[in-house]
């Protein structure tokens, strides 16, 4: 077998100018159960799939409140994600204590990305193995960012990460033009449809997904299980919409294959743009 | 033989985005003798199997008191477990000294998980080789957590870790719906039945198991050997129940095989959810 | 396969006196999407190609304001570039606070290069994987520098880095003699033509390029998308010029092949001169 | 030959969840000459085999006084053992200086175990290569602990470690039920019989064993050579008892083979219980 | 292929008593474009070849002013050279601040060499990849030193380093006896002839060489491009001299081959003398 | 060839529980020229063989004064030995300054052994490559210790280390019973006979051995060359004694071969006893 | 090819108890050009061969003044030698400042040796690659020491190190008996004859050797070139003596071959004596 000698140390460049350890860490994000985010001008909805360990356990939390105006959904190593969201909370507290105003979302996202970058340039560390969808609201409106292990971040209208996230992204790409002016109720519905796409036939239940909302006059809030279930029920009543979706998906299965082929790695955030 | 070049260093990612050293440390938990935990709304029972070194020795302690309201049962490297439970004790003392109230269980569990996470991101350390079932009582009631070497933690109604814990988990899954409102006496009985499942025909005796209880008006307490034996005796008198269990187990041996096949690794706490 | 034993550690010399890890890091610059810079006596224009992750995302920023009189465009690892531009911003603030005058561009460029050099001489670090085109204005006029991962820097009249930058450089070399006295409007046009060369048939749109200007009485400014589009439109109206260019390019496709062959690596900044 | 890639670094886990370097260090204990300990409710006797380097030398000390109420016998690397017993002495002095009461045995044993655990989790150290039988007396009576290189400790009624310790353990297991209420004279006799078992036909002499006693009203004391010889002489006069032992041993040679086969590694203190 | 196991670590000796990494670093000097120095009793001239990256760029600076009485020309990694010349500048400033007199050249050269030696004796560093020709004037007259990556330095009447420097050295060796009493104008001419030798047929232009002068009543000064060109023009008018040189070179091509063969490595500064 | 993967790092255990690097360091002691020590109740004599580098040099010192009451003879790396004896001198000075009494020999020997032990448990160090015979006098009489690289020490009546020391040990074992009450003159004679045994036919001269004495009313003193020669002369006059020795040696050559075979490694101080 | 796994790390012992990296460093001494030293009771002469880099350069200094009463000649890596002689100078200055008397030679030599020993026991350093002949005068007369990379030192009447030093040593051994009472003029002549022996037919000139003298009423002084030449001239006038030497050498070429064979490595200072 070909032995790659450039891919065991995070500070070693490959001859082609790649940092394999950073790319491998980004694989960890793809292995995690899916998380999605989408936003209007005024609201952000973060959602994720809960893979319960067993009937006996609650699922592990994957959506965290950072501050009243910021929340985060993760995919990948949950321990890394928890440590990073604690860091974010602490930055928010310090900022608002010092400046008596909330920390702007974009600023926090940059600090987070810088913290990740350091882990890609020290031989005794490893890149974080987690992707974070950071949703937030500040004076410039609602924002959705994706921070990835390479120390890069991207701003999105809507995005999905984690395992089988491609299906959710396809859904979001078909719909995103309407998001900007959508009500938060509509965003929640879209989030649920997108989550459903990642379940591959598994039934959507309040027990296997978490939904959170944040927006103008809405401090960050994880919806409780009953409310999620009632949303799911209402979606099923609106069956046709879902069917239409399915139809569209079928259609899509024929046509856009080439397009998908052309961008098979769209889900991975490359280190270079 | 295929040589895996990604699995000797805790800070090295594999091409598939895995941290093998962390996964190997989780194997150590599976090698340890079994520990189980279960809770009602008001009480937590922790139990473990004692594998005596020889007739000459007492068994090594595997259940530790952390504070009046928190206890822990471990499986895996007992030295690592002891060091971590000492850390927990010290955190509890510092908290109650500073705030004059007991440290909330969930908060301690997060600190413990964060301490474990650090060991997965420094090249000169190794992940802890121990799993901890943390039982505790605070204002929000009784809790049972499982902290694993990856730096993850999970909340459970009931759980079992260590060698042959699958049998105990099967028992607990069949019964857990009644636990929430069970008396602590019932919890103890269930714990003993679950422990028995892991013994594979070996006789349940007070010498090969330890039981501890914690709950409202019950500071953490390891039951003394005589009390455990009297519990065991009373179970045997209630033989039918046990037989029923066995019958159910037989039945189960036929039907849910597929289900078990579908989740063969349920005992391992994955790093990603 | 021949295994190179000198190319995995940044502090290891090859027998021929090369530092392979530094050269590999320079490959990362070539993989990034293109960035170009050009200047007159009084103005600098920085431009770059935006490769959008998906329809859902905004592109990642690759042109940064450092100060009113300094801006930077990057190619390669954007996380490394962001960290370095933050360093530059901080140096500018400190200097102007202490001396009450703007930091001279050349001085900042040397500090930046020294910071990069350190990363080529410590075994626990890695060279930065980013090239920076630094444009600035000070008492000695407008300047354009290229800082590369080796810790070297070069002053240019016009330069292009990143993927397919050779085509842009060919364009710039044909035109640069007129740049020194060009208006900033002309510089912008040249920048757009150069960018177009790197797109390989892809259509030039305001969505796939960013343009910034800086000059006498013009603090650093990234042009907004609409303005960029209007520039693009005006270029297309001036079609003949473009065609002339294309013709020249055709002609060039015949003749200067040898010349290109003689300098195939012109795009890479060698460590030694 | 199969090359084990997981067994050269103390911080590397094997795929089966083992720390080979810790297990190898425990081998060093088995290579050392034997040490045994046994206790009644009020007294502890520690004994060891002295393997003289040559006629010219005194044997190396393997039993150390820690405090009036604590002593230790070692098997394995004597240099490591000496360093650890010096640590214990220093802890005892500090405790009694601060609290004006003797350090409880169990507490010292935990500190010792924690010190050993640290050496199993730092890449630049190695596990200690010594096993320690710690005998002590405190308010809860006489205690005998075994501390092993893994950072584990066990409490025993009687135990033997080091080379050929299995024979001694077999003797002790046959007799231990009488130890709890034995006089310290009886304990010494049992110790000598157990030591004799490890000598494999070599004659028991005061020159090849050391005996120490500790108990209520008996500060820790290593018996002088003449006293040991007189004890040995008295044993030989009581020949029948010894013969009976031999007979029993013969008998045992037939029957409990299976049992021994079932627990061949009883002498090694596993890392997990 | 034979794998040399002694040449990847700067602190590893080969069996023959060589430090290969230091020797490899000296190769980097040979790869750099040429630099030459020569001196009379009162003046030093430093010159170098400029290899322009492209038409678009100015060449990278390779001659640096250290102080009014000291200048340096480098060959090899320019980033290393720049960092070292900054160090030299800072030493000069500190010295003259403290002692109110200029730092003697020889003293600075020793400090520089000691700084280089340290990099050959620490496992986490690498030797500098640059050779420095240090020209200076102090109370004992004009000096020319060569500092090489091994931490050695040599005093020269005239010297050349870098690629194709052998031809320049041959020229200098033929002429150096007249240098000591030459005027600085004559030194400049000799420098230009020597530079010409390294160009291998490429035309000598003011754009591909830099000349600096330093001497009694002449603070260090890099000649401006126009002045260099006028010197070049005057040389061409004095064609015969050049031809004579060429003739001599032809002659030399026949005779001194053996001599050259006997000292093929003269250009490399050995670590031992 | 079989490659031992456990013997290049001092902190790596072999599967059989050995530290090969420590054992290899003990080989260095065996390679050094011989040193011997012997003592009566009141005196210690240390002696060593001097292997002169050449006629031109004095031999390197191998016997050092530590204090008036302590001396040391070494075999192995003399540089390591010198550094350790300087440490011992400094400990003696500090002790006597603080307590106004001489440092007891046994205490110094333990400190020395602890210093050696540390070098066997840190990955960036190496075990000392020297054996030390420490002779000293304190309130409990004269003592002779052997400190070896493993961090172990042993007390001896008489001992020999270094190359061909087995012959000297055989001599000493035959005679040692008379040493305890011998005069220091007799000890010197025995020392010379023992040294002679290690010379293998080479003539005993004052130039190839050093003798030192220490005892009651005799501060440590290295005998001067003339005195040593007069001792040698007097031995030769007493030829018969020597012959008798030779005869005994012959006799021994027949009989105790088996015994020697049974203890071929007696000269090496094992790490475990 | 056999790969030696013990010879790349200075802290790794070979199975035979050798430190190969230290031995390899001693090879570097043998590669350096020769240095010799010799002394009478009152004077020391140090001399060395100068291998000029080229006609253009002065040779690199290899004899350094340490203080008025101490000088040093080196062979091997000159950069290492320079750094060590600077250390010696600084020790002398500190001592004389503190004690107002010159630092005794022997004491300085020990400090130097200890500094070298440290480099043989730290994994991140390398042994110095230089041998030093230290000549000095103190109250006990004139001394000549040789310090080698292993951390050992030896006192000599006369010695030669470096390439082809064996011939010089042969000369010195034939003559050394007369050195003790020789005048310093005679010592200089002997030094020149010894140097001549190492030149292998190359002519002895003032340009290829350096001579220094130090003695009672003679502070350390390097003879100037003219004085050295006049010494050489006077030697040639005394031709017969030289011829006699040659004759003796011829004779020697026949007879002492065996002797030389018996001590082929006399030039290397072994680590053990």
Automatic annotation (TrEMBL), chains A, B, C, D, E, F, G:
InterPro entries according to UniProt:
Ntn_hydrolases_N, Proteasome_alpha, Proteasome_alpha-type, Proteasome_alpha1, Proteasome_asu_N, Proteasome_sua/b
Q: Name one GO cellular component term.
A: proteasome core complex, alpha-subunit complex
- GO terms under biological process: ubiquitin-dependent protein catabolic process
**Stretches of the chain forming a coiled coil according to its record:** none
Q: Where is this region: Disordered?
A: 236-273
The organism sits in which domain of life?
Eukaryota
Query: Into which family does the record put it?
Result: Belongs to the peptidase T1A family.
Its subunit composition reads: The 20S proteasome core is composed of 28 subunits that are arranged in four stacked rings, resulting in a barrel-shaped structure. The two end rings are each formed by seven alpha subunits, and the two central rings are each formed by seven beta subunits.
Q: Name one Pfam family in it.
A: Proteasome
Taxonomic source organism:
Salicornia brachiata
Q: Does the keyword Cytoplasm apply?
A: yes
UniProt key word NADP: no
Explain the purpose of this protein: The proteasome is a multicatalytic proteinase complex which is characterized by its ability to cleave peptides with Arg, Phe, Tyr, Leu, and Glu adjacent to the leaving group at neutral or slightly basic pH.
Subcellular localization(s) per the UniProt record: Cytoplasm; Nucleus
| Name of this protein | Proteasome subunit alpha type
- Domain Proteasome alpha-type subunits, which positions? 6-28
Q: Biased composition, Low complexity: where in the chain?
A: 242-260
Q: Which UniProt keywords apply?
A: Cytoplasm, Nucleus, Proteasome
């Amino acid at each position: 077998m070909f032995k790659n000698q450039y891919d065991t140390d995070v500070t070693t460049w490959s001859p082609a100018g790649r940092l394999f350890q950073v790319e491998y860490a980004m694989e960890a994000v793809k292995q995690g159960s899916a998380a999605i985010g989408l936003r209007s001008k005024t609201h952000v909805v973060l959602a994720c799939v809960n893979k319960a360990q067993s009937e006996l356990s609650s699922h592990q939390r994957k959506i965290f409140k950072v501050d009243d105006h910021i929340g985060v959904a993760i995919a990948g190593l949950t321990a890394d994600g928890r440590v990073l969201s604690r860091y974010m909370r602490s930055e928010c507290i310090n900022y608002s204590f010092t400046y008596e105003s909330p920390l702007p979302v974009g600023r926090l996202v940059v600090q987070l990305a810088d913290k990740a970058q350091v882990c890609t340039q020290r031989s005794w560390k490893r890149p974080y193995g987690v992707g974070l969808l950071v949703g937030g609201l500040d004076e410039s409106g609602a924002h959705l960012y994706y921070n990835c292990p390479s120390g890069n971040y991207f701003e999105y209208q809507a995005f999905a990460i984690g395992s089988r996230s491609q299906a959710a992204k396809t859904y979001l790409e078909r719909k995103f033009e309407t998001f900007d002016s959508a009500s938060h109720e509509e965003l929640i519905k879209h989030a649920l449809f997108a989550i459903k796409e990642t379940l591959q036939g598994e039934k959507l239940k309040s027990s296997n997904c978490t939904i959170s909302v944040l927006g103008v006059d809405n401090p960050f809030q994880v919806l409780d299980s009953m409310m999620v279930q009632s949303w799911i029920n209402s979606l099923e009543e609106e069956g046709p919409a879902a069917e239409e979706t399915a139809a569209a998906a079928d259609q899509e299965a024929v046509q856009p294959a080439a397009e998908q082929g052309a961008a098979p790695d769209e889900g991975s955030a490359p280190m270079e743009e």
